[in-house]
């Protein structure tokens, strides 16, 4: 191990030690009850709620996936994705947060999303509880894997170590502090991680622009790449130039002489833009974000949390997209960035070039922060689906709190192992892995969250149809329809979300009206004061 790698490692270890200390600090509180372990006793302040929601949502996708897409194909896909997410973030906090915070408490003091759905429709046979929990396990397994891929790639690139070894190390760290500290440890660590993430992004932007010779130099080096700076076209790198020929090394660093390395720009049309903007729809069904609405201590603090959240989101995503563009200006060719998967390391490559090894280690801790802040949330929510919703909610209703906690921790370990297995392929492209799981949650739960909160005529049958129809359509569109290409090659979230809404409407229309108790509870949420 070189001196540079040792210094990088020292900085990263210091960061990881802080995360472990946070877990130990909250260990006693988390062990009090399952409510404390999974929801922190509904005690989040607005800053922690906002920052932890965004950090757990963005994951390693923000520092690796999004810059990688911008580096690889230019501004179009990265920009429209970021716009969709920013709008979705704002609307989710504006429309959903307040009513969901109230309704989750009124509906049996629900502490998980499946709990809320089941209690909302007062089901006697917990079909919604089971099916929604199964979807959480399916899609969070993919999400957990994407975070472990991020950690594995980071440590591997940083230390020159074996990817699979580093994958296991990253998973073990996250598992340990989540296992002992629960929701509050996860939320407070996510708050710190959100600060580190945005600070790392801003630092790389500032020093990267200086290294490139200013904004004018960055623009000059990328403006002539076909489609790279177009909102309605996408650049197409020619990946068939073999590095062994020396062609890449012989090409100068001016874009005019590098044009041979790019194919003609591909159109990025209105339908593709619409499907990319549809990323924002996913927020309405994201358990890791919605659970923060459950947990905030006062309804009146949600407005402040919304403002904090959207400001953080816009700054972070704008910086991430710009880093990808700037990276192409600084590294027109780089052996580590010559594939779509490799391009996701552009943040790492820039940090190593721009900073002293100790500082670079701290900056790259932002990537680890992103991965850890998401994977701990995913692990905790998925384990709650097993212990609270499936074990206690279906198989052993009289289970003690202690039994629920033990099942939860066993589920945490099993899910971590499953995530490592899924993440074993080091060529996984984080952006694509996350996009599928995001679509799954957005389509399976998003329509039902909105209909449950705002349409009192939604029935239990409609809820089941929405979850199964929306979630199932994600698989069908991704595996069967989208490969047809052409007009069908759109992001699966958009058609699946629409299909989920249609399923809820049609199934509720032909079903018997909801019981009076369900309707009365729905109306009561409008006027109830929970502060």
Q: Report the mean per-residue pLDDT as an integer.
A: 82
Query: What is the approximate shape?
Result: globular
Provide the structure class. mainly alpha
Through-space gap between termini: 55 Å
CATH class: Mainly Alpha
Regions with little confidence, pLDDT below 50 for 5+ residues: 240-260
Strand content: under 5%
Order of helices and strands: HHHHHHHHHEHHEHHHHHHHHHH
CATH fold call: Sodium/glucose cotransporter
The helix content, as a percent range, equals: over 70%
CATH superfamily: Sodium/glucose cotransporter
**Strand order in the sheet with the most strands:** 1-2
Task: Quickly give the CATH architecture.
Answer: Up-down Bundle
Biggest sheet: strands, sense, closure? Answer: 2 strands, antiparallel
| Computed CA radius of gyration, to the nearest angstrom | 23 Å
User: Could you state the oligomeric state of the chains shown?
Assistant: single chain
Short précis:
This protein is mainly alpha-helical. The protein has helices spanning 3-25, 27-30, 34-39, 46-73, 75-106, 113-120, 127-159, 163-212, 215-222, 247-250, 255-258, 270-277, 287-295, 302-330, 346-354, 357-395, 401-422, 430-454, 460-481, 493-510, 516-527, and strands spanning 233-234, 266-267.
